[in-house]
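Escalation from tier 1.

The customer reports that the assembly of two entities below gives different structure tokens on two consecutive runs. Tier 1 could not reproduce it. I'm attaching the input and our single run for tier 2 to review.
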Amino acid sequence: MNKKDVIICRCEDVTLEELHNLMKEGYTSFEEIKRILRVGMGSCQGNTCGQLIQRELANFTNTPINKVVTHKVRPLFAGVKLKSIVKALDDES
Amino acid sequence: MKANIVIVGAGISGVSIAYNLAKKGVKDIVVFDDNYLSGGATGRCGAGIRQQWGTKNNCILAKKSVEFFEIAQEELQYPRDIEFKQEGYLVIATTKEEDLQFVKNVKLQNSLGIPAVVLTPKEAAKIVPHLNLDIVTSATFCPTDGHLNPFTVTDAYYLAAKRLGVKFFYQEKVLNIIVKDNKIIKVITENYEVITNKVVNAAGGYSKEIGDMVGIDIPVYSENHEILVTEPIEKIQGPMVISFSLNIYCQQVPHGSFIMGRSDPNMPQGYNVDASWHFLDEMAKTAVNLLPPIGDLRVIRQWGGLYNLSPDRQPIISDVKELPGFYLACGFSGHGFMFAPMTGLLLSEIILGEKTTVDTTDLHIDRFKNSDFKDYEKSVV
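Tier 1 run:
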């Protein structure tokens, strides 16, 4: 299958080709790649692309996969509407 | 390893200083950063570019920086997009005092060539229709303010500096700087020892620690400021909306998501960059109050980053009389990102002993000696 047609990050619509091109440029950590391609910054917060990119980085850098650090996990656990947070605060008081 | 100049910190300030020095022909520049590309304050900032300030210094630095950002894509020959979007900053006043202060600010800004205007609430609503006009007393607007992508513009400077021969070392912490007979002789990092006589301190939130290594007490401290980002939607808001009295800044970035932040007056000084539920609560209340329809957006991520605060909330861009060869680019008080082009240009001029593009007397660290900080920047969230 053509690398252009393989989607690595569904949230930000990033292809395997874009990932490989960036790795070839010398960006070989998840955090660097995240800052340029936005992988891991979308709605799923890296739950989909994280392991796929980890595997690609392991192959490219010839590193055992368990040594490849993936993205920083940040709150929130799931998307919450701003007004729901406000309502919850009103309900508490 | 030997170096002409060692720069500590590869955030936007460090890469801009490296680029400007290399462009002027300086060889053997080495940059160390203890994190990834834009892993510190630069990559955590609100991505805003603003010229509407309350002090002359900040206005000049911001205006001249915007002039660079307008040509940065070509000048830095960057293959990706730095996403410079000039759709303005709408500064919201909610009190009589702010109305009066903002009229003064705009007068100062106009006198320096910044095209800001004072608006009635109705005029402000023409620019951002979803404003809650019940709480807006007046506003100011500068159409050439805007948004810039912190990650890609830092990457752009980094790649341009690298092409000019600058050596970068990431994930490489500076452990000590050795001074002998009041002269810098060596920089020691985790894996290297670099013989050098010149060190630039562009370490952002950690600049005080770098100063301590050479016995220079820099009057700055660090403080966590938090931000959140929502899911992306179709474009509904052009400018950044900001209010000092409500304590909020909020913009829709080109990607479609909304980024918003506020400060916490009870935040202790220090290096913590955690995300807190308290921020999430306060941010949600403030944003939904000022921009009600935003309430329908889902928050997907939140984080913190360090402001490095100086006593007058204006940057320190200077040499150090007590230690020749030691240079400072710190104390940006949350605005180092938008001033970076001038930081790099001015510090390169200072280092090379050239006449500076603008007067840097008031940016010198010595201004804090016996000062009562009357000219204090209040336009800070």
